[in-house]
Amino acid sequence: MTQLPEQELRLLAENIKSWGKALGFQQVGIADIDLSRHESHLQNWLDNGYHGDMAFMAEHGMKRARPDELVPGTLRVISVRLDYLPTEASFAKNLSNKNKGYISRYAVGRDYHKLMRNRLKKLGDKIASELPVEFRPFVDSAPVLEHAIAEKAGIGWTGKHSLTLNKQAGSFFFLGELFINLPLPVDSPVEEGCGNCTACITICPTQAIVEPYVVDGRRCISYLTIENKGAIPEEFRALMGNRIYGCDDCQLICPWNRFAQLSAEIDFQARNALFNKDLLELFGWDESYFLKVTEGSAIRRIGFERWQRNIAVALGNAPYSAQIVDALQQAKSNTTELVAEHIDWALEQQRIKAETEIPISRLDTRLIRSIEKGLPRDA
Predict the structure, then answer these.
(1) Residue 229 is labelled as binding a ligand
(2) 141 annotated ligand-binding residue
(3) Nearest CA to 321 among 282, 344, 349, 360?
(4) 254 annotated binding-site participant
(5) Exposed, middle or buried, 375 (CB in 10 Å: 0-12/13-18/19+)?
(6) What is the distance between the alpha carbons of residues 263 and 190, in angstroms, rounded to a whole number?
(7) Among 276, 168, 223, 184, which residue's Cα sits nearest to residue 52?
(8) Where on this chain does [4Fe-4S] cluster 2 bind (predicted)?
(9) CB 249 within 8 A of CB 322
(10) Would you state the pLDDT for residue 374?
(11) What digits encode the pLDDT tens for the residues 260-319?
(12) What is the enclosing helix (H) or strand (E) of 314?
């Protein structure tokens, strides 16, 4: 590793931030690799089993909090922010219509992993063109405490929902890291801005935020619809509503997201085939069409079976419809055991709704007239 005077390192750090922004990142910060204060929090989270079936979280243990164990020789981590909010988010419109499938807004466009990793590599290559260095880019691809690093790098602070928050950009952004063996000057953490607010904790449909800064992944709708490979526990199915891939509720309620920035990335804009679509239309896809439509999308990683599982639950939560019942019954004859279990649950929910709804034809004429006149029933 080349030894540079402190003044040259400061200039290089400034250049790195300029190069990063030129590559399309909205923010670039630099952190040291001492994450020791996060180790006990991480261990407690693992000990409580909050990682659920994500065995890879436990397999790597404390390596997540020790960047130089993951990449020997690492001295600094360059943290970057890339805004992803599509220009047509339509949060409320999509969530309130229970016949529509709601997809977390980070996933309605192109998968961000490859895009961000390529840009981080370009940033590393640019640094390496100036002097001999070793670097390695990461975007959700290794045991990295990305939010802890972003906090140290001044990108933002960790909110009570465990996501990174920024006063100028809210939380609708991706994070990426570039591990590097240069002793660059580091940035200072920003002031925490959550205060006494607990809106994210209160709004969570499944009460997955079990205490400030602690999320029980086993209860989180994002985990249940994406990471969970098996059956969705019955206690959470009705609470999922029409959320078929991920959940944005804790971000939507956050006051800081009034300042969320719309993404300038064409790749992050919503795909027509995935955005604001009826559940019945989505449920009607066969596997080949699913693979075609989700090519280059983060959604593809869950596979067709889990896609159908999630939509079956949403159809059970939708208002009663003979069309929904018919679609569920037809699908059950040619599906997997996992999906069939959720179809049975959905059919039962539809049956209950059908029995509790009172058709107008069953209301007596006098009652209808009373309602129309605003009179008591026995008038």
Answers:
(1) yes
(2) no
(3) 349
(4) yes
(5) exposed
(6) 23
(7) 223
(8) 204, 220, 247, 250
(9) no
(10) 37
(11) 999 989 999 999 899 899 999 999 999 999 999 999 999 999 999 999 999 999 999 999
(12) helix 303-317
With a cut of 70, list the residues of the chain below it in pLDDT: 1-2, 357-379
Question: What does 29-68 look like in DSSP terms, one character per residue?
Answer: EEE-S--GGGHHHHHHHHHTTTTTT-HHHHHTGGGGG-HH
pLDDT at 1: 54
In this structure, the dihedral spanned by the alpha carbons of residues 245, 249, 255 and 258, taken in order and rounded to 10 degrees, is: 40
The single-letter DSSP state of residue 82 is E
- Is 12 annotated in some ligand binding site? no
Q: What is the pLDDT of residue 357?
A: 67
pLDDT of residue 368: 36
Residue 147 is encoded by which pair of tokens?
Answer: 């939010």
- The residue extents of the domains of the chain are 6-180, 278-379
In this structure, the strands spanning 76-83 and 173-180 are antiparallel
The yes-or-no answer on residue 34 being catalytic is no
Cα separation of 141 and 56, whole Å?
A: 11
66 carries a ligand binding annotation: no
Residue 175 assigned ligand-binding role: yes
C-alpha distances (whole Å) from 80 to each of 32, 196, 209, 267 are 14, 28, 26, 18
